[in-house]
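Incident log, structure service

09:12 report received: a user says their structure output differs between two submissions of the same chain.
09:20 pulled the input from the user's history:
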Amino acid sequence: MNDELQKKVAEAIRDPKNVGEMADADSVGTVGNSECGEMLRLWVKYREQDGEKIIDKASFQSFGCETAIAVASLATELIQGKTADEAMEMKPEELSGELGPLPPMKIHCAELVQGALRDALSPESQALGQAKPNGLAPTLRDSINEGQAKSGSINIQFLDE
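09:34 re-ran on a clean worker, output below:
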């Protein structure tokens, strides 16, 4: 990664935007694999505007590299005010926003964000709401632990600071 991109990524992750679960999300998308270590979850909340559903806000959680976190942070800002169709049409290079073009070894970071976004905005995700019995969308920790339980792996436990 070149120095300029590293600097932009460092700036973006110094103060990432829209990090964390969104309890009242209308839909949620998850992409990645707990086996390889990169996972991203994206929550989306809509509002009505001129008879259309517009993305009001989005948030994310990520287990991944700094570039994936930076792209997710930028993308949650970029999709606000767009319809689901408009956001679904965004290409990985658009989602990376002010980071600019990513080098070949980092393109997968923007593709990870695009995958989570498409999963969250797909009609199936919106129809299902992907909610847990308590009304909340599953957390990224839930998804990782569920995947590991199926494969017989250990359960991840996060320490409180």
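09:41 both user submissions now match this output. Likely a transient worker issue. Closing.
09:42 reviewer note: Helices lie at 3-14, 66-78, 84-88, 92-95, 107-121, 123-128, 140-151. The longest helix spans residues 107-121.
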